[in-house]
Amino acid sequence: MDRDYYEVLGVARNATEAEIKKAYRRQAMQFHPDRNDGDKRSEEQFKEATEAYEVLRDPQKRAQYDRFGRAGLAGATGGYGGFHPFDLSEALSVFMRDFGGMGGFDAFFGGGERARRSRRRGQDLRVTLKLSLEDVAKGTTRKLKLKGLEACEECGGSGAKSGTAPVVCPMCRGSGEARRTSQSIFGQFISVGPCPQCDAEGTVVQDPCERCRGDGRVRKERVVEIEVPPGVSGNNYVTLRGQGGPGPRNGPPGDLVAEFRIQDDPRFVRRGDDLVHELLLSFSQAALGGEFTVPTPYGDETVTVPSGTQGGTVLELRGMGLPSVADGRKGSLFVHCRVWTPTKLTPELKRVLKKLAEHEGEPPGDESLGRRMWDKVREAFGGAG
């Protein structure tokens, strides 16, 4: 059974962002693979702590987790940041992202290939997807053309001319680090920083590729397919791991973050997973009742309006709203009936209405009728008071 994320980090459920970050740093320093000689158990604990940290540090993912647990994150399928269980490279990338800038960090952990690759990580890309309400209701797949840096095919991303390869840096001898020793009144002081000759890569390109000029990347266009799950809203996003820009000379790629922008639909007002539609009725239609066609995100539906319907009456079509990101359950479509009064009367219409007035009598004096009407309106719009 998966452990609770708050338990994993050893923090209270009302812990602040600073307390969560401090708790994660403590555990990451303890279980980091470079400090435990590749011990598998430590590696799993490191990944688990990083996974918990990535959820709890993000207000949206944390709120989703607090409400639905891990099932809520899995149900989002990217709706809240594209969450999925971390592999080791991703966990290391998260750790280096937030703590890799500490002075002497690499020296403390012994540096190594993972640290160098994290420094050469490619750029994260961010795009915006415009979605209709039908897209939100049913989910959709979008293909995007991205123009930017891509790995050079001629040199395989190494930056070295075809038939050659990068060589070990003569200054740092492959460590990617430069150490400087100085004396102070407190004794000998050693500072560790990136090697200036190889820029912390540990290798140098002596014969650069003519196409990419030694960078390992060229400008190119590619197509990315993004799956949008049903039920997303404008504050959701999906993260495609490793689909961002490539790092120089085979450095690890960044991530692609797709934000959602939901286009307004004049037919509906959205309230979470519920929708509200206003149905205009003439006096005769409201009085006689009947069947009327109303739009939904899934196509037109027929709604039965009872005879004697009052203005402000709200009819509910269950399952005709939007699906929940968390569990897929659909909300309702509330049909708000509004009686339309004509503003221009023909002589014939005036005659008919005067005749009707002789037979309809006075309106009822029951004030509770008005209260019931407004209660239904407030319920449809998700408020009370």
Count of DSSP strands = 15
Strand content: 25-35%
- By oligomeric state, this entry counts as single chain
Radius of gyration: 31 Å
Q: Give the % helix.
A: 25-40%
Main beta sheet: 4 strands, mixed
**Helix-strand pattern, N to C?**
HHHHHHHHEHEEEEEEEEEEHEEEEHH
What global shape is seen?
elongated
Please provide a written account of the structure:
- The protein is α+β, with helices and mostly antiparallel strands.
- Among the domains are: 1-101, Orthogonal Bundle (Helix Hairpins), CATH 1.10.287; 269-380, Urease metallochaperone UreE, N-terminal domain (HSP40/DNAj peptide-binding domain, Sandwich).
- The protein has twelve helices and 15 strands.
- The chain has helices at 5-9, 17-31, 40-56, 59-68, 70-76, 88-99, 105-109, 113-119, 133-138, 283-288, 347-360, 367-380, and strands at 125-131, 140-151, 167-168, 177-184, 187-194, 203-204, 217-228, 237-240, 256-262, 269-271, 274-282, 290-294, 301-305, 314-323, 330-340.
- The longest helix has 17 residues, at 40-56.
- It starts with a helix and ends in a 5-residue tail after the last helix.
List the helices and strands and how they pair.
Elements lengths: L4 H5 L7 H15 L8 H17 L2 H10 L1 H7 L11 H12 L5 H5 L3 H7 L5 E7 L1 H6 L1 E12 L15 E2 L8 E8 L2 E8 L8 E2 L12 E12 L8 E4 L15 E7 L6 E3 L2 E9 H6 L1 E5 L6 E5 L8 E10 L6 E11 L6 H14 L6 H14 L5
Parallel strand pairs: 1-9, 11-15
Antiparallel strand pairs: 2-7, 3-6, 4-5, 8-9, 10-11, 12-13, 14-15
Helix pairs in contact: 2-3, 3-6, 4-5, 6-8
In short:
By secondary structure, the chain is an alpha+beta fold. Among the domains are: 1-101, DnaJ domain (Helix Hairpins), CATH 1.10.287; 269-380, Sandwich (HSP40/DNAj peptide-binding domain).
